[in-house]
Each structure stands twice: as structure tokens, then as C-alpha cells.
């Protein structure tokens, strides 16, 4: 019996990262809404079953890395040295979490290009970034011994998230190496964190 030949094209992929990379390039080329799940599966040379073993949906290709990133940020904050000023901890953990997430292939930053050009992803994006800000708010609230929904923790979470997101968006066209960008992020966050630490210090004993 003659073995069926595999159609020509991209070789079959066998990992989440490779499927992700192909999908991201398709989104950039055709737009998120213009790229069907069937197109991604065909381009990757995998079965639908294999695809759904890696991703629960098309949108998860975009969001799963953010979920992982936010969980890692929470873990770093939970394990941080509580003798350090709270905003020093926040700044360090934000940079370290990104260092663990960002990749030299540029996949992480390509997500932001896709997000900025895909209105249909914005509602879910708002939820994702709220979760990220909540990680910071909850840490600050724990240091203060107050609710994370209080004025100070919630404001700090929102301020750090806004600065972080603005910085990442500014990197979209940058050709600098990741190591240099991370140093810039830490430097960019430092003045904001210093101001916010002053606000925290006025809440009582040094936090």
C-alpha cells in the first residue's frame, strides 16, 4: 500500500511555541479577524485535536502568555523581601517578570502590534490588564494592611500598569536588544515608584 504523501508547505509543528509563532505571523499578515482557526491549523500542519491541546481558542494564542506573565508577577511579589520599600519591590518584580516573559524572537512584542490593530480583542485586553494591575494593588494592600480596593492600593496598581503598558507600546518599533530595553524599563519606572513610595510613607510607618 502506498503511503499518503503530506501536502507541501510548512513542515508539521509539534510544540505550543511553534504553533504560536506561525499564528502570530498570520495575524500580522492578515489581521486577527482575517485569520481563521482553520487557516492556522492548516498552516501549522497539525490536527484540530493537537491545536486544542495547546490552546482552548484562537484568542488564547494572544492571551495565554499574558496569563502566565501575570501569575509570575504575583509569585515574585509574594516571595519578595518585605523589608524592602514596597515600591522598590514592585519595580524590581515588574522588571523581573517581564525578563522571564519577553523573548528574543520578538513574539511578545508582536502581540502588542496585533492588539493595537484588533478592536475585537480590546474588551478581553481590558480584563487582562485589570488583572495585572490587581496583582500590584493586592501586594501594596498587603503591605498597608488594607483592602486592595482602597484608594491608595488601587491607584498605585493603575498608575504602575499605565506606565508599564505605555513603555511596552513604545518598544514596538525598537531594534534595541532585550537587555537594554529592560534597563530602560527599570529606569523609566524609578521616578514614578519614588513618588508613589512617598505617598505610601505618608500613610504611616515605612512600607
UniProtKB/TrEMBL annotation:
The lineage of its organism: Bacteria, Bacillati, Actinomycetota, Actinomycetes, Kitasatosporales. Gene3D superfamilies: Homeodomain-like (1.10.10.60), Tetracycline Repressor, domain 2 (1.10.357.10). GO terms for molecular function: DNA-binding transcription factor activity; transcription cis-regulatory region binding. Keywords: DNA-binding, Transcription, Transcription regulation. Pfam families: TetR_C_14, TetR_N. This is TetR family transcriptional regulator. Residues 13-73 form the HTH tetR-type domain. Residues 36-55 bind DNA. It comes from Streptomyces acidicola.
Amino acid at each position: 500500500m502506498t503511503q499518503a504523501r503530506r501536502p507541501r508547505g510548512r513542515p508539521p509543528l509539534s510544540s505550543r511555541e511553534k504553533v504560536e509563532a506561525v499564528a502570530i505571523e498570520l495575524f500580522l499578515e492578515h489581521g486577527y479577524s482575517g485569520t481563521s482557526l482553520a487557516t492556522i491549523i492548516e498552516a501549522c500542519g497539525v490536527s484540530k485535536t493537537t491545536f486544542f491541546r495547546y490552546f482552548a481558542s484562537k484568542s488564547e494564542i494572544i492571551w495565554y502568555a499574558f496569563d502566565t506573565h501575570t501569575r509570575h508577577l504575583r509569585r515574585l511579589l509574594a516571595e519578595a523581601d518585605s523589608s524592602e520599600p514596597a515600591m522598590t519591590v514592585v519595580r524590581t518584580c515588574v522588571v523581573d517578570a517581564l525578563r522571564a516573559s519577553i523573548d528574543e524572537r520578538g513574539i511578545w512584542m508582536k502581540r502588542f502590534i496585533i492588539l493595537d490593530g484588533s478592536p475585537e480583542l480590546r474588551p478581553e485586553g481590558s480584563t487582562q490588564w485589570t488583572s495585572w494591575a490587581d496583582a500590584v494593588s493586592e501586594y501594596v494592600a498587603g503591605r498597608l494592611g488594607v483592602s486592595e480596593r482602597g484608594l491608595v492600593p488601587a491607584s498605585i496598581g493603575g498608575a504602575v500598569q499605565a506606565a508599564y503598558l505605555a513603555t511596552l507600546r513604545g518598544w514596538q518599533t525598537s531594534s534595541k536588544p532585550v537587555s537594554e530595553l529592560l534597563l530602560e524599563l527599570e529606569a523609566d519606572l524609578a521616578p514614578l515608584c519614588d513618588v508613589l513610595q512617598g505617598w505610601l510613607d505618608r500613610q504611616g510607618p515605612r512600607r
